[in-house]
Design goal:
Layout lengths: L24 H21 L2 H9 L10 H12 L2 E4 L6 H9 L2 E4 L17 H8 L6 H15 L5 H16 L2 E4 L2 E4 L2 H4 L2 H8 L8 E4 L2 H6 L10 E5 L2 H14 L2
Parallel strand pairs: 1-2, 3-6, 5-6
Antiparallel strand pairs: 3-4
Bound molecules: fe (ii) ion.
The site of fe (ii) ion (FE2) has 5 residues, from helix 5.
């Protein structure tokens, strides 16, 4: 699906430009180190849609992505854009952007001293972790539908909290079964070596339990942001999460 960018109202004040020329050689080197660190594991363990998306949107190993260039490739595929923002967005602005197929994307990059973890998302988490999946048409529709549903629930904290769990167990920590194996697609897994290893290495003590995806179970499953995940939900196809987001609209009505 390709469509003209929908104007933003709530989120407009958070939009910035990415000053790509201002990145230093050291920052590009940190990006390169991150990609070289993550890719060998992901070539084995990421879902095929993520790996295809990575190449389709033109991500490179040697330099921080120029979002304008990414969007030239991504926009014609699914109508999504990686849109630069100043940092964490309040929920209404965040959902407005998703509903408009614009992914709020930070432009700063973690420092070499904290390669594995940043408390707030950076361009590595947002672009390396999230954006390749936006090149997949069904995932693209799912994420927009998710934003639409949440935007209508801004008055209801309880329902929003339940929807937050759907985001967590799909967009951030989603896994999919492909050819009998668990593959990763959530950005919290893709962008984190520790979290991915925790999931992949099934013999390790404390590996998360992997359950079949079930919308009600996910909506009721609490989680802790600060700990390794104890339970994950595996889908069989991305149609399943698209249908779940449609179904969520009825449940939350
Ligand atoms: Fe994220």
């Amino acid at each position: 699906m390709n469509q003209a960018a929908t104007p933003l109202h709530i989120a407009e004040q958070f939009l910035i430009q990415q000053d790509w020329n201002a990145y230093t050689p050291e920052q590009h080197a940190v990006w390169a180190e991150l990609v070289r660190w993550r890719m060998p594991q992901l070539e084995e363990c990421a879902c095929v849609e993520y790996l295809d998306g990575f190449h389709q949107i033109g991500l490179r190993e040697d330099s921080i992505p120029n979002l304008a260039e990414v969007n030239k490739r991504l926009g014609p595929r699914t109508g999504w854009n990686a849109t630069p923002v100043s940092g964490f967005l309040p929920p209404d602005a965040f959902f407005e952007m998703l509903a408009a197929r614009q992914f709020p994307t930070t432009t700063w990059l973690r420092k070499r001293e904290s390669l594995e973890y940043t408390p707030e998302p950076d361009i590595f988490h947002d672009v390396f972790g999230h954006v390749p999946m936006h090149a997949h048409p069904v995932f693209a529709d799912f994420l927009q539908q998710y934003g639409r549903v949440c935007l209508r629930l801004m008055h209801d904290k309880d329902k929003l909290e339940r929807m937050g769990r759907l985001f967590w167990f799909t967009v951030e920590f989603g896994v999919i079964r492909q050819k009998g194996t668990i593959k990763l697609y959530g950005s919290g897994l893709i962008s984190s070596h520790g979290e991915s290893t925790h999931v992949i290495n099934r013999i390790a003590e404390g590996s998360p339990e992997i359950r079949d995806f079930d919308l009600d179970a996910v909506l009721n499953q609490e989680f802790l942001v600060s700990e390794m995940q104890k339970v994950l939900y595996a889908v069989e196809s991305f149609d399943q999460i698209y249908e779940a987001a449609k179904e969520a609209e009825h449940r939350m009505a």
